[in-house]
Specification:
Length: 296
């Protein structure tokens, strides 16, 4: 099957209106891309992570008449801050297969593998701890440095028999990793109900029972403390949530935070330093992970 794509350059304020217009015109898919190479990270729970300037692309069958859609976009060009839009024909290629081929099993730390359902972990990885996770709508597949930093940290921790809190669980990848690495109970929380649904579904696909990973909204978190707390969100919320996250940590409990750009590390560290000892900052590309141990 041959395809055509409509490419529209706009701003984040108008992404909903434009994507809705593309969908109403019968788009087989609508995708978002960064227009100016602006970094983006795992979002604050409940937020859609988009760049300030973005490219929205709608994919349509080649024979589809998109004249009405083009006129509609032209009519709203100024009110929707559309810098430009264009229609392109795509050569006949196996797009789905090419997309799938881009995703390979990924190793984090010494033994933690994340792999999609259409691939296998290398047979040589005899001590592998495997997480089955297909790319989807919920964020967190291991591709982003912030997720990788958290997965590598979990792989290096002794989680056997521990109680773990994943604050801002997204796809559930960190909660699943903790459970697979031996945690007795993992509580995964997120402001977005869809993230909780994704976590439940991904846990089920990884043969984890409902009592192994408990999901809830932040306001429904049980009043207890945890051996390990991990949060991969944004630096601003990490600073705001410092008293909350620290209140969930047992004395001598372990804390790991990510979603922190290099120039934000000092600010985040300052919000936690009074309660932590043995703190350490680890960098991957332009992102940081802050870890430490709660004071007794």
């Amino acid at each position: 099957m041959t395809w055509q794509q409509l490419i529209c350059h706009t701003t984040v304020e108008h992404q909903e209106a434009i994507s809705a217009a593309l969908e109403e015109a019968g788009a087989a898919s609508v995708t978002f891309e960064d227009a100016v190479d602006q970094p983006i990270l795992e979002p604050l729970p409940g937020e859609t992570p988009l760049w300030d300037l973005l490219v929205i692309t709608g994919l349509y069958p080649a024979e589809e008449d998109l004249t009405a859609l083009l006129l509609h976009l032209e009519l709203h060009r100024h009110s929707w801050s559309i810098a430009e839009f264009k229609l392109e024909q795509l050569e006949d290629r196996p797009w789905v297969r090419e997309w799938m081929d881009n995703f390979h099993p990924m190793l984090f730390g010494q033994r933690l593998w994340v792999y999609p359902s259409w691939r296998e972990v290398p047979a040589t990885a005899t001590e592998a701890v495997k997480i089955l996770l297909d790319p989807g709508l919920a964020f967190g597949t291991g591709n982003h440095p912030t997720t990788a930093l958290c997965l590598e940290w979990l792989d290096g921790e002794d989680l056997v028999g521990k109680q773990v809190l994943d604050y801002g669980c997204g796809s559930g990848i960190l909660a699943i990793a903790a459970a697979k690495l031996g945690a007795a109970v993992v509580v995964a929380t997120d402001l977005d109900p869809q993230a909780l649904e994704a976590t439940v579904e991904n846990a089920r696909r990884n043969q984890l029972t409902a009592d192994k990973i408990i999901t809830c909204l932040p306001e429904d978190l049980p009043a207890q403390r945890y051996d390990v707390v991990i949060a991969n969100i944004l630096s601003g919320p990490l600073v705001t949530l410092a008293p909350t996250l620290l209140s969930y940590l047992k004395p001598q409990g372990r804390l790991a935070l990510s979603g922190i750009l290099a120039d934000q590390g000092a600010t985040v560290a300052a919000a936690y330093e009074f309660a932590l000892e043995n703190t350490q900052i680890t960098a991957k590309e332009e992102w940081l992970r802050l870890e430490g141990q709660a004071k007794a």
